[in-house]
Specification:
Elements: H1 3-20, H2 24-39, H3 44-49, H4 62-74, H5 78-86, H6 89-93, H7 102-112, H8 117-125, H9 137-151, E1 157-158, H10 159-174, E2 179-185, H11 186-189, E3 194-195, E4 198-204, H12 208-215, E5 220-226, E6 230-235, E7 240-245, H13 251-259, H14 262-274, E8 278-280, E9 283-286, E10 289-292, H15 296-302, H16 318-323, E11 338-339, H17 353-362, E12 367-370, H18 385-401, E13 406-414, H19 425-428, E14 433-437, H20 446-458, E15 464-465, H21 483-492, E16 496-500, H22 510-518, E17 523-526, H23 538-547, H24 561-567
Bound molecules: 2'-deoxyguanosine-5'-triphosphate (DGT) and calcium ion (2 copies).
C-alpha cells in the first residue's frame, strides 16, 4: 500500500471520530499520524514487512504503531471499519463541500439527523440550518451554493496550466489603475504539482472594479457566485477561480491565510494562540487590536516566525527550520547552469543538435547533454549502437563550431524489462553522460522493478536515473519502487537522481527529492526537451526542488561543467 493511501485512511478515521464528537487529542493524534505517514520517504508497508517498528517515528505511540502494522499487513484498519458502520456514507459526502469540515458535519448529523447531501440541501432550502446555534443565513446560502461542486467530481489541473491561467488573470487585473495589489495564492502559489482551483487576491477601493473586469476576461466562461468581496468564476477550461478583494491593511494576512496549506495554517494558528494572539485572514490580533496584517512578513513576525517561502508551507519541516533559524536558502531558476536531458531529430525531438545548442545558449545555459532514446523506444526512432556512434560524431563536430556552450555526448538508455540495459557496456562506456530510465513494463511487480533499477545503478557507466517512477501525473501511476533501498544504492554507487521538470512528470516528487538529498545524492534538474521551447519547463523542476527544500548546493547542475564533472562517477 502506498503511503498516501495509508495516510488517507487515518485522515478518514480522524474525520469520522470528529463527526462523532470524540476526544480532540485522539483526533489530533490520528491527523499527526497521517501527516507522518504521507511525509515519510520510505514505504511504511515495507518497513513493517521487513520487521521494522512504525513507533520509530516521532509522535507514533504504541497504539498507532499497532494500527499502522495492521493496515500494512492486511490492508484494513478494523477501527475504521467499525466507525464506518456507525456513520452512514452520505454523511462523509458532506465533507466535500468547500468550507464544510467535520465539526459542521457533526452538527448536521447529530443534531439534525442529516444523512446525505440531499438531506443537507433540503434542510438548507427549508431554513432549518440557519435556526441552529452558530449557523446563520450566510452559512446556509454558501452551503447551497457549494453543494453542486461537491456533487460533481472535480478534476485537478497541472501546475503549468494553473500558472498560465492565474498569472494571465492577475496581470490583467493589475493593469486596472484602481487595483493597487494583486497576487496568486493557494496551491498555485505553493507550486504544488496540481491545483484543484485557483485563488487570487486583490486590493482595490471599489471591489466591483476587479470583479467586473474578471467577469468579462476572455478566459472566463461564467460567474458562479458574486458577493460583496468574493467572486467565483469558472474558466473555459473547466477550472474554477476565487477572487477575493481585501482591504490593504489585511493584504498580508489574507495572502498568508489563502496561500495555505490548511495544515500549515492550523500550525500557525496554534502558535498565535500560544502567544495569546488571534490570527485570521484579516490580521493578527491582541484582544481586538490588530498588530499585523499589511504584509506577510509582518504577519509571520508578529507570531515570532521568519517569513516562510510558500513552497515550504505544508507543515513538514518548515517550523522546525524556522525555530532553528535555518530556513534553507532555496534554489532559484538563475542558479541552473546546465541541462542534461534533451532530444533531437535523431530520435523523437523536433530540432537539430545545433538548434538545441543555440537555443540553450540563448537562455543562458553553459552546458547541455544531448540524450536521445535508445533502440527499445522504436516508436521514438531510438538509436542502436551504430546510429548512436554516428550521432555522437556529429555532436563532436558541432561542438567544435559553436562557442559559449559545451555539449556532452549522452544517451537516454532504457532499462529493459529483463533488467539488462538496451545498449552494450562498450557503447555506454564511450558516452559522456548516461541516463538510465524505465519506459516499458512499469506495471511489473516490485521485485522486478527494483532488480532493473539496481542493475542500472550498479552499472559503472550509468550516471543518473531519469524520471525514476515513470508516472504521468493524472494519467498513469508510477512503478512500484522501494525508495530507501534505491536511494541507498544510488548513494553507494555515486549515481545521481533526476528531477524531470516536465509538468506531467515532476519525477522525483518533492518528498523523494528531499530524501535523495538526505542521502547525499546530487540531484539534477532536467527539462527532457523535445524542441527549442522545451527548455521553458525548467522552472517547474526548480519549483519542485524548492518544495523539497533544496538549495543551490544540493543541485548538481548549478555547478560549472568542470565542477559538475567532479561529481560524476569516476
Ligand atoms: P487546491 O485548490 O485543492 O489545489 O488547494 P488550496 O491549498 O489552494 O486550497 P483551497 O483553494 O481550498 O484554499 C486556499 C487556501 O485557503 C488553503 O490552502 C488554506 C486556506 N483555507 C481554505 N479553507 C480553509 C479552512 O477551512 N481552514 C484553514 N485553516 N484554511 C483554509
Ligand atoms: Ca486553490
Ligand atoms: Ca479556492
Amino acid at each position: 500500500m502506498k503511503n498516501d493511501l495509508m495516510a488517507s485512511q487515518f485522515e478518514l478515521l480522524a474525520d469520522l471520530l470528529e463527526i462523532q464528537g470524540a476526544n480532540p487529542f485522539r483526533i489530533r493524534a490520528y491527523r499527526n499520524a497521517a501527516r507522518t505517514i504521507s511525509s515519510a520517504a520510505e514505504s511504511l508497508t515495507d518497513l513493517v514487512a521487513s520487521g521494522g517498528d512504525p513507533g520509530q517515528f516521532d509522535g507514533i505511540g504504541k497504539d498507532l504503531a499497532r494500527q499502522i502494522t495492521e493496515i500494512a499487513q492486511t490492508g484494513h484498519l478494523s477501527s475504521l471499519e467499525e466507525l464506518r458502520k456507525q456513520i452512514p456514507p452520505g454523511v462523509l459526502d458532506m465533507l466535500r463541500i468547500p468550507g464544510v469540515g467535520p465539526k459542521k458535519v457533526s452538527v448536521f448529523f447529530n443534531e439534525l439527523g442529516l444523512k446525505s447531501l440531499a438531506d443537507l440541501k433540503a434542510a438548507c432550502e427549508s431554513g432549518r440550518l440557519s435556526k441552529l446555534k452558530g449557523f446563520g443565513k450566510k452559512t446556509e446560502d454558501s452551503i447551497l451554493q457549494n453543494i453542486a461542486a461537491a456533487t460533481e467530481h472535480s478534476q485537478r489541473i497541472s501546475i503549468a496550466d494553473a500558472r498560465a491561467a492565474a498569472e494571465a488573470i492577475v496581470e490583467d487585473l493589475r493593469s486596472l489603475p484602481e487595483v493597487t495589489q494583486c497576487e496568486v495564492a493557494g496551491s498555485c502559489r505553493r507550486r504544488r504539482e496540481t491545483c484543484g482551483d485557483l485563488d487570487v487576491l486583490a486590493v482595490c477601493s471599489d471591489s466591483a472594479v476587479p470583479m467586473n473586469r474578471l467577469a468579462v476576461h476572455p478566459l472566463v466562461e461564467a460567474v458562479l457566485l458574486r458577493g460583496e468581496t468574493k467572486q467565483r468564476v469558472r474558466l473555459k477550461t473547466g477550472v474554477e477561480l476565487d477572487l477575493r478583494v481585501v482591504p490593504e491593511e489585511s493584504f498580508g494576512a489574507a495572502m498568508q491565510y489563502f496561500t495555505g496549506s490548511k495544515e500549515h495554517n492550523v500550525a500557525v494558528r496554534h502558535r498565535a494562540k500560544e502567544l495569546g494572539l488571534k490570527i485570521n485572514e484579516y490580521g493578527v490580533f491582541r484582544e481586538e487590536t490588530s498588530i499585523a496584517g499589511r504584509t506577510e512578513e509582518e504577519v509571520y513576525a508578529a507570531i515570532g516566525l521568519p517569513w516562510i517561502p510558500p513552497e515550504l508551507r505544508e507543515n513538514r519541516k518548515e517550523f522546525e527550520w524556522a525555530d532553528a533559524g535555518a530556513i534553507p536558502q532555496l534554489l532559484t531558476l538563475t542558479d541552473i547552469q546546465g541541462d542534461l536531458h534533451m532530444h533531437t531529430t535523431a530520435s523523437d525531438g523536433a530540432a537539430s543538435i545545433e538548434e538545441m545548442a543555440l537555443a540553450a545558449r540563448d537562455r543562458g545555459l553553459k552546458y547541455i547533454a544531448i540524450t536521445d532514446h535508445s533502440k527499445r523506444v522504436s516508436m521514438a526512432n531510438g538509436l542502436d549502437a551504430d546510429r548512436l556512434r554516428k550521432h555522437w560524431q556529429e555532436i563532436r563536430r558541432i561542438r567544435e563550431s559553436i562557442d559559449g556552450i559545451e555539449i556532452l555526448c549522452g544517451i537516454e538508455c532504457d532499462i529493459l524489462e529483463d533488467a539488462t540495459m538496451d545498449l552494450p557496456d562498450d557503447v555506454l562506456s564511450e558516452a559522456d553522460w548516461v541516463i538510465a530510465v524505465l519506459h516499458y513494463g512499469l506495471r511489473q511487480p516490485r521485485e522486478q522493478i527494483m532488480l532493473r533499477l539496481m542493475n542500472a545503478i550498479r552499472n559503472p557507466h550509468v550516471d543518473i536515473i531519469g524520471h525514476c517512477t515513470g508516472r504521468m501525473i493524472g494519467r498513469r501511476e508510477g512503478a512500484d519502487i522501494q525508495f530507501t533501498e534505491l536511494l541507498k544504492a544510488a548513494a553507494d554507487h555515486q549515481v545521481m537522481m533526476e528531477i524531470n521538470a516536465h509538468p506531467s512528470r515532476l519525477d522525483l516528487n518533492d518528498i523523494h527529492a528531499a530524501a535523495a538529498r538526505d542521502y547525499g545524492i546530487p540531484i539534477v534538474i532536467s527539462t527532457d526537451s523535445h524542441s527549442v521551447n522545451g527548455f521553458d519547463v525548467l522552472e517547474y523542476g526548480v519549483d519542485q526542488a524548492r518544495r523539497a527544500g533544496l538549495t543551490k548546493q544540493d543541485v548538481a547542475n548549478t555547478r560549472s561543467l568542470k565542477d559538475f564533472k567532479k561529481l560524476m562517477k569516476s
